[in-house]
């Protein structure tokens, strides 16, 4: 399942570079989240296939927004629950995960589920791609979602018991860097999810919507994505040192490389679901690295 394209009027005229940057960012927010834009602002943003492709570069920028809202819910719930018990940490984390899933429409979790169903359901490429387009949830998808969500909740709760600052750091870094890691795949692998070019904002098929995002993506887009990721890297170095950043990048890099190899061998390339799956799995990798790196310094609950 792919998210709906923003229903906006076509962009008219040529924009200045700052205005174009803002338009592309807001278009990315419209596509990758459920955050609504006022009608007049949405009309000003506009839409075209070229704009949508440029907006893809701001995928990690959207991660800042999603993580910020999720972290705000986490902090509020932790404060309201007293912040003194492990179960309070778990409840606060689950609420923040619900907020994150609502903001994004769970499109990345859906991508993980579809990829697991497709790759687990058939060794044949065409059958696997057909399964991935099926909206029904199979056993592989259900198992993957349950295990991924349990692992995410456990790791974030562990980080939260070591302090709210650690959990907020983990959320912001993981949401931004995981989206940056996913942006590396279109530079390496071809898009194989659909055969028709995008036609219009409304009424596009799932394949054409994803094609408008990632097919033939230019290296300049990855440069913009990296610019969004650099502040997260700098914050991680400031909070935990260069070694933590190195381990985080190594874990994400190896995982993305491995996933890309699987996608190339089994599917011949990537689909939009492959990007969602990569985002989810690399997000988990960041939480795991930070839990391992920060666990020795965690105080006991209530201390």
Automatic annotation (TrEMBL):
Q: Where in the cell is it found?
A: Cell membrane
Catalytic activity line of the entry: alpha-ribazole + adenosylcob(III)inamide-GDP = adenosylcob(III)alamin + GMP + H(+); alpha-ribazole 5'-phosphate + adenosylcob(III)inamide-GDP = adenosylcob(III)alamin 5'-phosphate + GMP + H(+)
Q: Does the keyword Acetylation apply?
A: no
Q: Which Pfam families match?
A: CobS
Entry keyword annotation includes Phosphoprotein: no
Q: Name its pathway.
A: Cofactor biosynthesis; adenosylcobalamin biosynthesis; adenosylcobalamin from cob(II)yrinate a,c-diamide: step 7/7
Similarity annotation: Belongs to the CobS family.
Q: Which HAMAP family match?
A: CobS
What name does this protein carry? Adenosylcobinamide-GDP ribazoletransferase
Phylogenetic placement of the source organism: Bacteria, Pseudomonadati, Pseudomonadota, Betaproteobacteria, Burkholderiales
């Amino acid at each position: 399942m792919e998210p709906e394209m923003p229903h906006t009027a076509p962009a008219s005229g040529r924009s200045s570079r700052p205005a174009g940057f803002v338009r592309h960012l807001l278009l990315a927010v419209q596509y990758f989240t459920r955050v609504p834009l006022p009608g007049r602002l949405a009309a000003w943003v506009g839409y075209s296939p070229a704009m949508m492709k440029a907006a893809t570069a701001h995928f990690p920028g959207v991660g800042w927004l999603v993580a910020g809202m999720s972290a705000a819910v986490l902090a509020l719930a932790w404060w309201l629950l007293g912040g003194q018990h492990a179960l309070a940490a778990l409840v606060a984390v689950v609420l923040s995960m619900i907020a994150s899933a609502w903001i994004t429409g769970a499109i990345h979790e859906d991508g993980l589920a579809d990829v697991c169903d497709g790759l687990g359901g058939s060794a044949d490429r065409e059958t696997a791609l057909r399964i991935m387009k099926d909206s029904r949830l199979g056993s592989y998808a259900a198992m993957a979602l349950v295990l991924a969500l349990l692992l995410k909740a456990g790791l974030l709760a562990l980080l939260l018991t070591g302090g709210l600052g650690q959990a907020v750091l983990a959320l912001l870094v993981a949401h931004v860097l995981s989206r940056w890691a996913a942006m590396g795949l279109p530079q390496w692998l071809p898009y194989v999810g659909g055969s028709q070019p995008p036609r219009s904002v409304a009424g596009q098929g799932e394949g054409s919507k994803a094609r408008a995002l990632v097919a033939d993506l230019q290296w300049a887009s990855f440069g913009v994505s990296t610019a969004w990721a650099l502040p997260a890297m700098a914050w991680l170095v400031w909070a935990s040192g260069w070694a933590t950043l190195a381990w985080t990048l190594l874990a994400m890099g190896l995982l993305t490389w491995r996933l890309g190899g699987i996608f190339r061998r089994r599917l011949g390339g990537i689909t939009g679901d492959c990007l969602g799956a990569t985002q989810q799995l690399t997000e988990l990798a960041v939480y795991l690295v930070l839990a391992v790196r920060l666990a020795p310094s965690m105080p006991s609950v209530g201390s």
